[in-house]
Amino acid sequence: MTQDTDAVGRGPASFDRFCGRGVDRASISNRSRANSAISLIDAPRHGRARATTRSARSVPLAQMAADANLYKRLFLYDKVDCLSAATIQGVETLRRPTVSKSELMPGGDDRIFRTFIHDFLAFSARVDQCRAGFGDRLGISGIAYTTLISVAHLQGEEGVGVSRVAEHLHLSGAFVTIEVSKLVKAGLLHKRANQEDRRRVLLTVTPKARKLLDQLVEMQAPVNDALFDCLSASEFRQLSSMMARLVPCGDKAVTLMSFLTAPSAPAVPEVPRKVARRR
Prior knowledge:
Helix content: 40-55%
CATH topology of the largest domain: Arc Repressor Mutant, subunit A
CATH architecture of the largest domain: Orthogonal Bundle
Number of domains: 2
Shape: flat
Order of helices and strands: HHHHHHHHHEEHH
Radius of gyration: 27 Å
């Protein structure tokens, strides 16, 4: 039976210690390094990831990615040939958890996390269905409806800029500009030059759009009430606060995933420098 050892030196011996026959300091250190690597990737700005701490600036992204990948080896060892028959007996499944943070594993595994993710996706799909329904009622797409009602709520007396709408919706300015153009063409938005900055425009809803939005409330209000019918006032405030905090976490996760899945650049061979010979 082969005694395999992985890239960080965690073989059967360390697995035994991790299972309770001693403390494997390497596993503790590796878990810390993996969590640190993930926490050092901040939300993307201008298409680049930036470090959030002074120590992060000194750590190459390649090293951070390698550390982040260590979570794959934190809890379950690839091979079971190091386990005795008594240990294997009674074990139904042997799989790696999909998270490594202890805060996300209240039962010691990722079962609650997986249930939460699936419930979250199911609820998100239903919210998207409702939004699409609101858009259909106005004769536009769901995202166009979201853009339109955001302008209506943000415009004030002077109007609102594209960048402010994009920030509010957590979308790119270029994407919002495309949707705004469609709404202007449909006669639902009016745009005019910003007197303080002629390069920018201010958006306002047209009387036609205002009338449609007012009529939509008859269907919109009961549907929105039903979406969150199970929440108390305090629970809704807590959920609203948590969602505001989760959006930057989502940006961070997307940035990390993009980096970890990006193809590595081929190594550039060094060109030997010519050394001048002394005469």
